[in-house]
Design a protein that fits this description.
Length: 104
């Protein structure tokens, strides 16, 4: 069964694309507000003690000077890499640097 959940994205304009990483544990969104946001899945228990997944925004940045139309994850063999393209006629490749949670 599919269950729809709302996520407060905090984007200031239309969201154009959503992409999941290879494992389905990270999600990226891009918007006309010129930003990209990265989300990590968080396990939590609801009031009936059933497990469900919530999303937590772990990174956000202004990616382009125009609307960001497309976001996609690279294969994990290349690391945590995202590619974006924009209405400003540019494409960008972003690589996550720094230490991540070792449990992830």
């Amino acid at each position: 069964m599919f269950v729809a959940r709302n996520i407060r994205t905090e984007h200031k304009d239309l969201i154009h694309d959503v992409a999941y990483d290879f494992y389905g544990t990270r999600m990226a969104t891009c918007s006309s507000d010129q930003t990209v946001r990265v989300w990590d899945v968080v396990e939590s228990a609801n009031s009936t003690s059933q497990q469900h997944k919530d999303w937590s925004c772990t990174a956000a940045w202004k990616a382009h000077s125009g609307s960001v139309w497309k976001v996609t994850w690279a294969n994990p063999e290349f690391g945590q890499v995202i590619a974006t393209c924009s209405f400003d006629r540019t494409a960008a490749v972003w690589e996550e640097v720094g230490k991540r949670d070792p449990d992830f």
